[in-house]
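fwd from M.: "can u put these together and see what the complex looks like"

so here's what she sent:
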Amino acid sequence: MKRTLFVSLVLATSLIPQEILIKNATVYTVSRAGTIQKGSVLIRDGKIAAVGKDLKASSIAQVIDGEGLFLTPGIIDAHSHLAVEGGVNESSLSVSSIARIQDVINPDDKDIYRNLAGGLTIANVLHGSANAIGGQTQVIKLRYGAPAKDLIFKGAPTGIKFALGENPKRSNVTLQPGQARRYPATRMGVMDVIRQAFTDAKEYQADWDNYRKGKTKVTPVRNLTLEPLVEILEGKRLVHAHSYREDEIVALLRTAEEFGFKIATLQHILEGYKVAPEIQKHGAGASSFSDWWGYKVEAYDAIPHNASLMHQAGILVSINSDSNSEARHLNQEAAKSMKYGNTSYDDALAMITINPAKQLGIDKMVGSIEVGKDADLVLYNRDPLSVYAVPQKVLIDGKMYFDIAMDTQMNESKSKEKDELTTKLKPKADPNRPNPMGARPNPRIGSDFFDTFGQEWKEDLFCHIHSEYHTHD
Amino acid sequence: MNKNYLKTFFTLLITTLLVASDEPITVIRGARIYPLDGPVIENGVMIIQGTRIKAIGAGLAIPEKARIIEAKGFEIVPGFINVGSQTGISEIGSVSATQDVNELGSFSPHIYTATAIHAGSEHFAVTRADGITMGGALPGLTWSTRAFGSGGPVISGHAAITQFSGWTGEQLVYRKAAGLVINWPEATTSTFDFGTMSRKNRPYSEVKAEVDKKINAIQDWIDQGLHYASLKANSLVTTNNRDLKLEGLIDVVEGREPVLIFASSPSEIKGAVEFSLKNKLKMILMGGYEAEKVKDLLKKHNIPVVLGPTWSLPPNEDAPYDYSMKMPSNLYNSGIKCAIATFSDEFARRIGQHAGTASAYGLPKEEALKMITKNPAEMFGLSDVGTLTPGKAANFVIFEGDSLETRTKINAVYIQGQEMSLENKQNKLYEKYLNRIK
Amino acid sequence: MNLRKTSFFSLLFISFLTLRSEDPQTYFIKNIKVVPVSGPVIEQGSVLISDGLILSVGADLKAPANAQIVNGEKLTLYPGFFDAYNDVSALAGSSGATPATAGIAARSTTTQVITGPSDRPSSNASLALADDLRLDEKKLEAWRNGGFTHMHLVTKNGLISSRSAVVSTAPNYSDASLIKPETAIALGFSGGRDFASFPNSLMGSISYFRQTFIDLAYFEKQKETYLKNPNGLVRPKYDKVLEGLAYAKAQGLPLIIPVTTKAQIARTLDLASGFGFSFLLQGVQEGYKASDLLGTGRIGALVALKWPVEEANADPEDEPNLRTLRFRDQAPSTPSVFEKARVPFGFSGDGITSTKDFMAGIKLAIDKGLSKDAAVQALTLAPAKLLGLQSVVGSIEKGKIANLVITDGEPWESKTKIKMVFIDGVKFDIPEPPTPPERPNSRPNTPSGKE
């Protein structure tokens, strides 16, 4: 069958050769080695084996000529909603830590491939921002074509989503008839939800401690909502907190300090520049949009210099997308920090590679081109922060997941297969054979809501557009 | 005649003409200039006086008493024109009190956004600082409400074109009735129901009947508009029978004002084009998400297209990943005149990025620049702007490097020969809080 | 005198006749091709049934004196067809809403606020569908006429269904028609009552199950300990859903979980393995991609025969994407792939309301490679095994319930007619389906009136 042939072709060309040598490219190592002109990278068994000039590889190595090309570490998006089936928000409760993104990873989401084509190799897939405490998050590698369990980035620390501000207090959502307003309705309510949840979590933690120490005989019931919160208290789970306004940012940091844990990253953090010293002192990382503003009241004071200013204040800063569309050009977004706020080229590149890697606790494995790390690489035809740069090849673990030449081939064969199948499936006129009114094929899984638009949308906007076009007054 | 003699002659001529007026002269020199109505000029000189561009060229003589701006290594391009936006009528998306985009009613040819341009909007200064000198104020876009069902205005109202310099809303309006926005009825069989957070499907025949009904209604309005126009021409309109809605249609039905038709799918675009031809309307296709499927039709009838963001996701699962990025070059290669617009305010400053991306994916840089300057100016009949042509308004931007790169800083923005302040809400906040960490 | 005797016996005979159609009698079906399913086909065989059960099956049987003879020449005898999973609405009357079905089907009007998993949203494991079934006679007749002698009815809405039931398609539905009043518990991922209630997302539903089955294990242990000696212990809080689940588990009832795509199959296998229940997958239309995941004989499937096709009234501009086209093309090959991989499976009529469509679905599967033997298996014995009914239905064997169907051809051929059906040994002659009216002749009448 033609499809088998195509699959074999893909497999054959993407088989992990023992060795791959990318040579004579401009290599942006995003490390102390800096940028190497006419540099080479040797990959062996999916890991970076050597970086330098004039490397030698074995005779069976696949050689990629990097002449005139530019090699960077794979881009890491610290705020993504990619590849999620059945909704990114469990928005019914204010504390939905029981929900897990890893349960609903959809490997068939075409946007995985589109993001790969933009140089993205790793995404921190988050629960939405409808709850003060949201669901558990999952870091994935964009291994398009692999089953869900193989998208999971093994070894990445676990995470969870918090959200502050307008979204969790539902200020931009119109209630459906009969629907009651969910607590909380104010920012202080949001903070209360968090404090109460951790108060409960401490109690739960104590119950189990007592049981383990033999002080109580009866096993406590396992509570899957509180367990992840205990993990936060024990420093085993990273907190990614969607936050905008300076007051809520600081309030959260103080709450975390009150309960003895740290916020790993503040997401969006559009007023982060106002409270940079506080953030820096607490030790939280910041993951910001590049130049979004004005869509909500809490985004009205957003400035495109946000990332630069926080970076200058000594905070670990990354630039994120919160959008399947934006995630395809994070390199261009990082470049904006050079324009707004005078961040250097290298620091801007770091904001989409090693910085998010550090924020996600995966910097030992990815984020820079250094020996021993995973061979997650992007080969561009122009310098990587240029608007003119088009990714030519994208590798994850040394395996080619995107190749611009192969993309054309793939489109052609897909188009052919589509024509063949369309003809084959045309219902034949047969009076004796009833045409069962078939089931609607599995509705487009993944972020189908967002696919509908031709524009760029972010999950963040979801809460806002709902009221704009559904006013009942 | 001797070349040198000619050069001297023209230089003298220009100098004379310039000196003849009192207004100060500004000279910018050393930059790469993109006039866009002629070849790129390396190491060029641009002379402006008053509101006008006086001369552009390489090696022009510099008049005395001129203020000279050194622009070595810089690029000068015409001021960007973002015809698809809501600058001035939309402040904060989620706050309806700040939104003057969607009026009630399906057919509103009496609505003019020109009467609601808010000069106090922060968006003007913010967007201008990124090189946008003119924008559109488009009413009633169902571009965004598409997935919500078949609601939303059909004839939304008249869009205005604003120039980003002025004390009042009135002064900001450059063209009061730049075009009548029509959202071409779309057959949406699948909509997203927020009540159940699921897709709701309707049978196509039912939806098609609704679409046809709406199209007939639009036709009816056009017919009535023509009739009213003839009444007016024959002085038969009095205070007793004056109809503001129909009055709003006169320029449109008589072909003086274009219809800005939002249509995405091939059948919608076809329907819109056929309708416009039938009724002799001057059509500009807005959005044209799947325009490449009906390229031949658009080319045949010279329908210009205002495309949305180049970074839009492809329209369906199987479309190539670079579908939207390649659309501008695709259409350009087919001889179709295109502009690029952002269709939103929050992203309005990205217009250069979209043009740059179009260039990355096959469109020559100059053509990409034209799509955000010369082309929209021509489409909307803005003959005084869009290119750097002597005699035209001095609307231009000086970039400290490649004008389409997202990392390039802007040195200056000029509107009508006046250098604009680049200060805005955002860089003021930056300066303020920079002090906190110093 | 003679007249009176004759009339007495006539009356007796007539009353006997009328009674006959309601009481299982003794039937000897002879000269028929017997497809026992549990053994090889008997080309010229006979079957003796009496008092609702099969007494004997063979090639050289003799008809006992009291048996009514059914002549099976040129006909085939199968075990009655079994729709292994269909929504209760396939047979229920319009007024058939019962607590077991209605409470979760409609957007609930109760004002109970769901504060979390412990409020057990949309969960009806404490109820049994069998308690309150009201079935529609016309629907029963339609399925019966299609050769289906029994069906597995499930309430699909909600997260945890009420306990499902296998009923026969005999007329005048009563509790006597219940073959297995408690068969399985179906899970659903479509969430709670309304958008605002927990869970309103797929991951919420999944986490709800995870928590509930953890709670179940805890609850069972807690109860056990408490019942042994309650003194000094906190009494277990009454949770009717957990009680229902515990009961179902003790009875060996499986869970039935709906899945479609390979990703969903993989995810469900992972998730459900921690529930402490045996389980079956239902729908499984991308099973053709996932047979390796299901393993040999490890997990059973109830494959939905409503194959994905183009919708009737779709936007002609809406081109289906390649993934959908592939799905439509290959889904019907799932049964054949399962056959080769030895994945046990039955057929589910979920979404199908006409037996003609059910059979057309099987025909397509056969066109895509399913063997006829396996098709018959999946129509009869295989689902019986998966649902714990293997001792009583699914094959023509001594001692099993006499649920049988006689056809004049292979069941999935559109021209095949169902001739006769036996349910609990009661015979039903199936009338010929009405032929469509003659198409009016398009030629105008000639003055002579002749065509």
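replying to her w this: Chain B is about 30% helix and 25% strand.
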